[in-house]
Amino acid sequence: MPPPPPAPGFTPPGPAPHSPQHAHVPPAPETTGHVPLPPGGPVGMPSAPPAAAAPDPAATTLAVLLIGPAGAGKTSVAKYWADHRRVPTAHISLDDVREWVRSGFADPQSGWNDNSEAQYRLARRTCGFAARNFLANGISCILDDAVFPDRPVVGLGGWKRHVGPGLLPVVLLPGLEIVLERNAERSGNRRLTDEEVARIHGRMAGWYGSGLPIIDNSQLDVPQTAQVLNDVLSRSIASPPTW
């Protein structure tokens, strides 16, 4: 027999009635993920201020390369300097980028070979790429590396190719005794033997007479060294070193 008619107000079970779908609306340009970023290009020379005005490195977008032996205090000074600027600033450490490689890391302490050389060059190129992109978006950069004066093509020449001619190099070179003391406080693969520290420090002495600004921070703490670095950069902006 046919089923009885439903009672008034009764809704038979079943799928919900179809509701019209709203058309997909793309997110507004202001939302996260849609911020346009200028592409990074070679860093040009910083523009010098008028002769009547003293250049203020603390308020200028800069690319700085801090050079020095292991134990010179490069990382501590670079971090402090970046932390206390009035403009956005990034610290890019070559050693940190090299250690992104976990499995297969070529530790130079185990001997310098083609593999460690390749990883060093790759890290430097990665640092340069990052610096150009930060700077193109208004963020200053300070990079640190143990660049040797007797390898200009690999050292300064490589940084100049990867970052640009506007990179400002500064050498941090305390006395050997200070470097040995600071190295002794290190641990892991960042700590070198005294013989290796002395050898690197001796090679770094070749920067004297190179024309690059040199800071002897043997008797300076980190804030004092950062202040001297600001003074040096002020002169470098007004009269960029030839390198």
TrEMBL record:
Residues 44-55 have a biased composition (Low complexity). It comes from Streptomyces caeruleatus. InterPro entries: P-loop_NTPase. Residues 1-18 have a biased composition (Pro residues). Residues 1-55 are annotated as: Disordered. This is ATP-binding protein. SUPFAM superfamilies: P-loop containing nucleoside triphosphate hydrolases. Signal peptide: none annotated. Gene3D superfamilies: P-loop containing nucleotide triphosphate hydrolases.
